[in-house]
């Protein structure tokens, strides 16, 4: 009995989703794959059935469908390679040149497949085997990663137990527990960086905060250059340089963000942990949270997947399929944060807002800009006007939020507004080249390091906690000060230091404290 079934078009349709997830498993959630995989599978079935009606041959219809999906997803990678290899100002790789060529490739492939008189049964069988191999290879990587990282995670959980610090187990419970808001504004630069690198005076916003009682740490710098490292450090009140000696540091990093020592300490004091999904793995679907606010669309996985396709060439689709959802996610977080004071009991609220970091989806008034770039690791910070426009709108939303929280809260809350790292406008576009002669990205100079590591850092510690803060405080000491003051804990303040690493070698740390500290 001959087996002439056709499965390769459906496997080729979902393979890009599995491939992307398997290569970003430490940063993405498995649930991120469900919606795009379902959409692509449905599209492949529709296209396959459509061409069966036209050619009356399942093998031809399958080959046409597979070609469409392979070229559809290959487009983004080819366009990216061509553009990144061009000299500045050369437009050979721009979408309006490449798109017609790709259209001809797809059209020509369809025409040839329909017109050929050859029996394509064997080719279909080969494609079945090849597609099965690709899908199974990606699935095996996913399964192997989950299996191999279980021991790393189990050892960490056993080592840390349920306490933030055993030496501080017998802390004093204050008579009234204040809500604690930890709001991370991703990529929010320091006042000096905004002035020196972006020619923007942020005094009006900072004055608003000081008028409300905030302490502005004008000379603060980040402890790490990458979001995951910065958050795993601040939420555990410790340096994480030991990641460099670990095989599966990524899985431990995510665990330390999702259920860090800060969270454990506060839960042991009766706090309810409220998590706001940011689109990044450890904080998107947090099993340790007592309550979660999640906006399902507009995450980084969907954005990268979109960039792999031909749809990236269409500005309207790029704006409204992806950009609009990123925008809605940020607005969703701000709107839901305003309702948190209505929840009974003491609360620790963790909200990572991926803004003013790119992509730039807001102008100064909160509208979508005429054009957006779906990038997070390129030279987007060099789009200085776009960055400042988005920052100004975020300032507006933060001011509205602060007034709401202060007005609605029964007891004045503790509020931490903090960046995870600075900006990158001085780094240039060569992040993909491992070339020491470039002088940036891998080993940036002092001018670049100051931009990347100096951050916005503001704390509201009523009624008198601000007296314990200092202008050079870094995130690693934030909760040490808070816990010592409000819970009579005994956390020793650590030396404020800054460690740079590049995201392609994120666990190779360089101590850059002397280069980035303020005069």
Question: Can you walk through the features of this model?
Answer:
By secondary structure, the protein is an alpha/beta fold. It folds into 2 domains: 8-143, no CATH class; 161-516, 3-Layer(aba) Sandwich (Alkaline Phosphatase, subunit A). The chain has 17 helices and 9 strands. The chain has helices at residues 8-23, 34-55, 58-85, 95-115, 121-160, 191-198, 203-211, 227-234, 249-258, 261-268, 281-284, 300-307, 315-337, 384-408, 446-453, 478-487, 513-516; strands at residues 180-185, 215-216, 272-276, 291-293, 347-353, 414-418, 457-460, 499-502, 505-511. Strands 2-7-6-1-5-3-4 form a 7-stranded mixed beta sheet. Helix 3 (58-85) crosses helix 5 (121-160). It starts with 7 loop residues before the first helix and ends with a helix.
Number of separate domains: 2
Gross CATH architecture of the largest domain: 3-Layer(aba) Sandwich
- Distance between the terminal alpha carbons, to the nearest Å? 81 Å
In angstroms, what is the radius of gyration?
Answer: 25 Å
Instruction: Estimate percent helicity.
Output: 40-55%
So what's the overall shape? Answer: elongated
| CATH superfamily descriptor of the largest domain | Alkaline Phosphatase, subunit A
| Overall pLDDT level | 87
Unreliable residue runs: 87-93
Give the number of DSSP strands. Answer: 9
Return the string of H and E elements. HHHHHEHHEHHHEHEHHEHEHEHEEH
Largest sheet: 7 strands, mixed
Structural class designation: alpha/beta
Strand content: 5-15%
* CATH secondary-structure class of the largest domain: Alpha Beta
CATH fold description of the largest domain? Alkaline Phosphatase, subunit A
Strand order of the largest sheet: 2-7-6-1-5-3-4
């Amino acid at each position: 009995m001959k087996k002439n079934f056709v499965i390769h078009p459906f496997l080729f349709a979902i393979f890009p989703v599995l491939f992307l997830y398997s290569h970003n498993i430490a940063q993405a959630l498995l649930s991120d794959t469900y919606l795009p995989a379902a959409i692509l599978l449905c599209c492949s079935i529709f296209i396959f059935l459509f061409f069966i009606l036209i050619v009356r041959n399942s093998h031809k219809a399958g080959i046409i469908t597979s070609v469409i999906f392979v070229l559809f997803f290959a487009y983004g990678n080819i366009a990216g390679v061509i553009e990144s290899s061009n000299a500045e100002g050369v437009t050979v790789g721009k979408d309006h040149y490449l798109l017609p060529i790709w259209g001809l490739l797809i059209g020509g492939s369809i025409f040839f497949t329909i017109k050929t008189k050859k029996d394509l049964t064997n080719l279909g069988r080969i494609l079945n085997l090849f597609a099965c191999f690709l899908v199974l290879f990606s699935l095996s990587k996913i399964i192997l990663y989950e299996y191999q990282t279980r021991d790393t995670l189990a050892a960490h959980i056993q080592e840390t137990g349920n306490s933030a610090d055993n030496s501080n187990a017998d802390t004093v419970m204050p008579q009234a527990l204040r809500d604690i808001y930890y709001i991370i504004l991703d990529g929010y630069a320091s006042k000096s960086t905004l002035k020196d690198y972006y020619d923007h005076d942020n005094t009006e916003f900072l004055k608003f905060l000081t008028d409300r009682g905030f302490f502005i740490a004008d000379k603060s710098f980040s402890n790490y250059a990458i979001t995951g490292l910065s958050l795993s450090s601040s939420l555990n009140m410790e340096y994480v340089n030991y990641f460099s000696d670990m095989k599966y540091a990524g899985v431990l990093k995510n665990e330390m963000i999702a259920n860090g020592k800060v969270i454990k300490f506060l839960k042991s004091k009766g706090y309810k942990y409220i998590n706001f999904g940011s689109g990044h793995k450890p904080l998107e679907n947090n099993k340790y949270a007592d309550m979660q606010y999640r906006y399902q669309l507009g995450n980084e996985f969907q954005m990268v997947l979109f960039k792999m396709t031909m749809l990236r060439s269409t500005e309207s689709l790029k704006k409204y399929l992806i950009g609009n959802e990123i925008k809605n996610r940020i607005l969703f977080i701000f709107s839901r944060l305003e309702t948190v004071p209505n929840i009974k009991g003491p609360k620790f609220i963790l909200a990572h807002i991926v803004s003013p970091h790119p992509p730039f989806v807001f102008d100064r008034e909160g509208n979508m800009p005429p054009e957006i770039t779906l990038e997070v690791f390129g030279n987007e910070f060099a789009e200085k006007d776009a960055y400042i426009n988005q920052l100004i709108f975020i300032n507006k939303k933060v001011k509205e939020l602060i007034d709401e929280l202060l007005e609605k809260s029964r007891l004045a809350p503790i509020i931490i507004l903090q960046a995870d790292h600075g900006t990158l406008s001085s780094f240039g576009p060569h992040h993909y080249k491992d070339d020491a002669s470039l002088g940036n990205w891998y080993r940036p100079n002092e001018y670049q390091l100051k931009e990347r590591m100096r951050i916005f850092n503001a704390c509201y510690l009523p009624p008198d906690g601000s007296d314990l803060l200092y202008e050079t405080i870094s995130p690693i000491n934030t909760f040490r000060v808070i816990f010592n003051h409000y819970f009579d804990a005994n956390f020793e303040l650590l030396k404020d230091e800054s460690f740079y690493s590049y995201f392609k070698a994120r666990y190779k740390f360089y101590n850059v404290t002397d280069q980035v500290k303020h005069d």
